[in-house]
Fold this protein.
Amino acid sequence: MSSDKTVRVRVAPSPTGDPHVGTAYVTLFNYVFAKQNGGKLILRVEDTDQNRYRKASEERILKGLKWLGLQCDEGPDVGGSYGPYRQSERLPLYKKYAKTLLEKEKAYHCFCTQERLAEARETQKKEGGRFGYDRHCRYLDKSEVEKKLQGGISSVIRLKMPTEGEGSFIDELRGPITIDYNQLDDQILMKSDGFPTYHLANVVDDHEMKITHVIRAEEWISSTPKHVTLYEAFGWEKPQFIHLPLLRNTDKSKISKRKNPVSLDFYRRKGILPETMINFLGLMGWSFKAEEREKFSLEEMVSSFKFSDISLGGPVFDQKKLSWLNQQYIQTMPQEKFLKHCREEMFSESILKSIYPLVRERLDSFDEFFEKFSFFFTLDLKYENLSLVPKEKTASEMKTIFLELSLLLDEIDIWSLATVTQVMNSYLKDKALKPKEFYMPLRLILTGRQDSPPLLETMEALGRDVVRYRLQWVCDHIFTG
Ligand code: GLU
C-alpha cells in the first residue's frame, strides 16, 4: 500500500443520531494509518440527507472523537485548505460536476414519477426482468429531454452504468472484487431537490479533498463499483480502497442498538475510559502480534499496526471483554488521574447541576445521598423486589409499550424536559394508556424505586442513553413472558 503522495484519509459520518462506536472504530484505523505515514486525517460531515440532518448529532460526534483523543487534522471544527467540510455547504460543487457528467453523456436526466417507477417495478416482477430502474429515460432523445426541462418537469440525474460485462476493483484487504454490471442500477446522483446523493457527493469530495486511501466499513463494499464507475466517468485517479470488517453483536449479526448499546456517550457515561475504548476498538479485527498482548495504547498501535494483520472474520463487540479491559486500566490508574476522573466524569459539574434541583428537597442529610439517588450514577439497577408488570397488563404488552416508547425517545432531536414531556404525553394519548399503568412501571424501570423525584425531570437528567438502556434492559430481561 505504498504511494509517493502524502497520505490523506478521511472519516465521513452522517450526523444522524448517536455518535456511533462504528464511527470511532473507522476513525481509529484511519487515524493510525495517517499517523504512521505522516499523513492527514480529514473529517467530513455527510449531511446531504437534510431530513435526517442533526446539528446536535454532529456536535456529539466531534465531542466523542475528541474524548477518545482522535484529533482530526482538517474538519468543520478545525478548518483546513480543502473545506468547507460539511457537504451541505458544498452544493454548487456537486451541481457543477453533475453538469460535467451530463455534458460527457455519462449521466442523464430522469423524469420518471414515483407512479411510473412503481408500475415499471410491477411489470419487471411479473416478467422476471432485471431488477432496478428500467432505464426508460436513458434512451429519450435530446429534443425530448430539452422540451421537458424547458417545461419545468422535475427530474433527477442518473449515472449511466455499463449495461454489460463486469466491473472490478481491488480491496486492499480482500484482493480483487468483481461484480456483474447487470446487478447495478443506474444510480441517482442528484435528487430532484438539487441535493446530491451519497455516491456523487462522496466521490466528488474524495477527489477534491485529495483522498489517497478510502478506509471505511465493509457495508460500503457494494457501493464501491458505483464509485469506481464515477471515477472512470470523470477520468479521475481512484484512491485505494480498504473495507474494514463490520463490528458484530455476540450472536454475530451486524452491530445494532437493538442488541448492544452503540453510542459513545453511553460508554462514557458507563465509565469506560477513553484509553480502554481505543484499545478495545483496536482489537476489533487486529491484534498486537508483535508482543501478543491485548492491552496497548494508541501510540503503541501506531507504531505496530499493519493492515496485513487484519483478520476479516467479523470482530465481536463483546461487553464482557470491554469491562475486563476497562478494569485493567482502572487497576493501574495513577491516583491523580483517578481523582480527575471522579471529579470530571462521575461527579461532574454538569451531572451535579442537573440533579441539584431534584435532590435538594429530598435530603435530610447528605449521608442519604447514595441510598436515595444512586440511580443517577449507577447504570444497571436491581429490580428484585419490584413488580414491574401492573395487574391489568401482561409482560408482553409491557414489552410492546416500552419498546415503542424507547424508539420514540430515540427520535427526539434535542433532549429536554419540554421534548420528553411532549413525546410522553402524545404517546399516552395515542395508546389511550392510563397514567397509573404507565408511569408507575416507568418510574420503577428508570429509578429502581417507588419514590423518586418527578419522573419527567428525572428522565431529562438521566439523559437519553441511560433511559433507553434501562428500557431495553427490562424488555430483554423482565418483560419476557
Ligand atoms: N456517510 C457515510 C457513512 O455514514 C460514509 C461512508 C464512506 O466512508 O464512504 O458512514
User: Anything to note?
Assistant: The mean pLDDT is 92. Residues 21-36 form the longest helix (16 residues).
